[in-house]
Amino acid sequence: MYGYMKKLLRVNLTAGTITEEFPDEETLKLYLGGCGLATKYLFDEVKAGIDPLGPENKLIFMTGPMTGTSAPSTGRYSVVAKSPLTGLWGHANSGGYWGRDFKRAGFDGVIFEGISETPVFLVLDEGKARLMDASHLWGKNTSETTKLIRQELGGKFNVATIGIGGENLVKYAAIINDADEPHWGRAAGRCGLGAVMGSKKLKAIAVRGTAKIEVADNEKYREEAKLRFDWVNQSLLKMSLEVFGTATMLDMVNVKGGFPTRNFQTGVFKGADNINGTAINDNILVDQKPCFACPIHCGRISEIKEGTYQSKGEGPEYESLCSLGSMCDIDNLEAITFAHFLCNEYGLDTISAGATIAFSMECFEKKILTLKETENIEIKFGDSDVLIKMVHLIAKREGIGNLLAEGSKKMSEKLGHGSEAFAMHVKGLELPAYDSRAAKITGLGFATANRGGDHMTSFIEGPTFLSMPFLIVDAELSDELEASKEDTKILMDYENAFGVFDSIGGCKFMGMVLTGEDWAKMIETLMGYEFSESDFRILGERIFNLQRLYNIREGLTRANDTLPKRLLEEPLPEGPAKGHIVDLEPLLDSYYEYRGWDIDGKPTSATLERLNLDWVKI
Ligand code: SF4
Known about the structure:
Layout: E1 8-12, E2 17-21, H1 25-31, H2 34-45, E3 59-63, E4 77-82, E5 89-94, H3 98-104, E6 109-113, E7 120-125, E8 128-133, H4 142-153, E9 158-161, H5 164-167, E10 175-177, E11 186-188, H6 193-199, E12 202-208, H7 218-233, H8 236-244, H9 248-255, H10 272-275, H11 277-283, E13 285-289, E14 299-304, E15 311-314, H12 318-323, H13 333-346, H14 350-365, H15 371-374, H16 384-396, H17 401-404, H18 408-415, E16 425-426, E17 429-430, H19 440-448, H20 461-465, H21 485-504, H22 516-527, H23 533-553, H24 565-569, H25 584-595, H26 605-610
Parallel strand pairs: 1-6, 7-12
Antiparallel strand pairs: 1-2, 3-4, 3-6, 4-5, 7-8, 9-10, 9-12, 10-11, 13-14, 14-15, 16-17
Helix pairs in contact: 1-2, 2-21, 2-23, 7-22, 13-16, 19-21, 21-23, 21-25, 22-23
The structure holds iron/sulfur cluster (SF4).
């Protein structure tokens, strides 16, 4: 099998043992690698109902067969485990260089089991693996941990690590890779997998190596990859993302009235000009960074040169500008950027952290949270100092931060008083920076994403809010305020296609420029067996359904495929989508039908058979 290093590690942290194995050819063909293969392991090896932070959960890091090859933007890796935030299938994905370096160290993935008695970190060095003591690293932030490990080991090690957020089991703790210069950090952010890492007392994974990835037809693969790299390099995508970073989205979403503001109380943010791509470029930007093998430099390096928030680091991205900005009604770019840097240092998901803070601000406004509970902190919308203070308290689980560290779902369950209606999450995962009332089909995407309220599963906000065709799915959506039955099939096609990206190690932005046929061709040339565009789409569908089956085994039903009451019942008060809500149920009906699921959202036996999933018994 080409594209693989043919070595998967199994590290039992309770026993301190490390063994090697590799799946058979049939399993690889059915699940490929990355998120797909990791999900298969999780499904097979982790029983329903276990504690996500207990020894029975497994934490699986997996690269894809394209990770580290010359195809455009293929430096990514996935992490899969049962999520402590949602209690369901959890997945996080990250770019940068760590995925490539992991593979060059000679491995495709690693499965962590059990819990170590004392803090440890794993070292993968030129095909060899060893666990080392991390007691001296416990309590350190991500960039410092990275520096210290590099000093201790010498040489060019790349590190993926948790900060104190993960150590303190913050339910939305992230794993940060490339956390130090020259790349400054990328995050496997969502679903709280940093907390799973913390629960296992696993501080970091350091990797180094020079191993080569075997390709079935090297010369042809180089040609195929170069051709597509050049297309991406000449694309409109590159022009906008490189100049403005992901913040390029901000004005486009705001102008459509879908930029979540004041915890989704409105979709129009008056302070947009103070925090958009132009504001970043004019005030704080010092460099633009690519991930491995990517012609697009969408990463931002920013510096606040003086004042209270003096600092330098990676970001801020579009999502943070919303969650730590407009969601909290803050248009102070320096404060948002500093809060973003803090999240990277503590290892927190900026989306969930910001959304939970915004939720607490609304609870305070509505007197559901009082000064007694907050220990005299006035958690008010628009207060930059409070935003920063809350990030510190969450990461340290101090004071009211201990409650916020549980995420908005658990918080609302504890606080009650109707707060569930405006706790802006799906299945426990806080929603991203798009108000579905201004682009209805995104609501279906957030409701059906297997990891919860997530924008990266279908990436449907791209073609809707950007009004740009994505070549990965050859179909046009209806007007964003009118989702049609056909749109639900298009959404499904996006979900399936992007599931393959997570399994090969690719960046989903490439879905705007390259087609399914492009990816199928590159996969075929890399791996040396016939692989058509139809294989590409079926593979994605199989992986999506297996994730769904994992969740069903955990008790998920149609009732969980929903949105916060605010989006279903509270019309937007202003902007082009004024008066709109999301009418979700009819969309769910037709989506289930296209998926081949029954009325409760469970795959039928015919669907399971068609997808080679008929071995699953639930
Ligand atoms: S488009 Fe941006 S996120 Fe994607 S690989 Fe390139 S630099 Fe990384």
